[in-house]
Amino acid sequence: MKGIAVSKGVAIAKAYLLDSTKFCIIKNQLSELEAENEIERFNQAIEKTKLQMTEIKKRAEKIADKYAVILDTYSLLLDDDILVNETIQNIRTHKTNAEWALNETLNNFLKLFDNINDDYLKGKKDDLDLLVQTILKNLIGHSQESLSDIQEPVIIATHSLSPSDTIMMPKNFVKGLVTEAGGKTSHVGIFAAALGIPAITGVKALTSKINSDDQIVVDGIDGEVIIN
Questions:
Q1: Residue 111: is it exposed, middle or buried by C-beta count within 10 angstroms (0-12/13-18/19+)?
Q2: What is the pTM of this model?
């Protein structure tokens, strides 16, 4: 399987398949009063996400200054009036739940990114998507799978990796990173380079071809993933 090499090196280890399946968002109709309460719930989720990002950045600074700077992007997006205000407007206009309203806002943003050819800006599309998934987890009350429990050498294989995922990884056991999403400017590559481990992004259908405990090779030079 081929992808984009974003951090050099070669690693061989068991695959650790991280579930990063997106939520199935259902639209719920609300009364006008319920919609106003929903806006408050959305604002609380935004504030919780801001606190999480602040804590993640503090931890990131201990790994690499460059990686910590990347996390500023997430803070800026959380402070973006368009992201927040458009979601609030969706809740009020459609009288619907915050999850659906936020997902609609995300879809509108992603359509704009589809017409951009710049690789750097396309990378921001993935950042926005990951951030919205984090907000959704806080809205739904979804508990994060803990990567800190890993106790053997592994290569993380997943659709996408959030900043909180990377920070929680036991650095002595994670030997490589492979994702379906992401591009040349992905935060995954910057994080992996800081740790000195290989990483590949943009591997199509990765999670449908790899099982947990498969022995795999990650070639961060040629951008190739091999299943032994």
A1: exposed
A2: 0.74
CATH superfamily of 32-140: PtsI, HPr-binding domain (1.10.274.10)
Give the DSSP letter of residue 179: E
Gap between the Cα atoms of 142 and 19, Å rounded: 13
Residues 6+ apart with CB under 8 A from 63: 167, 171, 191, 194, 195
3-class SS at 14?
strand
Average pLDDT, the chain: 84
Domain ranges of the chain: 4-19+145-227, 32-140
Residue of 41, 48, 22 whose CA lies nearest to 97 = 41
Residue 181 half-sphere exposure, CB side, CA atoms within 13 Å? 19
28 falls in which pLDDT band (50, 70, 90)? very high
Q: Domain 4-19+145-227: state its class.
A: alpha beta
User: 199 by DSSP, 3-state: which?
Assistant: strand
Two tokens, residue 133: 């998934």
106 by Cβ neighbours in 10 Å (0-12 / 13-18 / 19+) ranks as buried
Query: Which pair of structure tokens corresponds to residue 73?
Result: 């992007």
Element (H, E) at 98: helix 98-113
**Tokens representing 217?**
């090779």
How is residue 118 annotated by DSSP? -
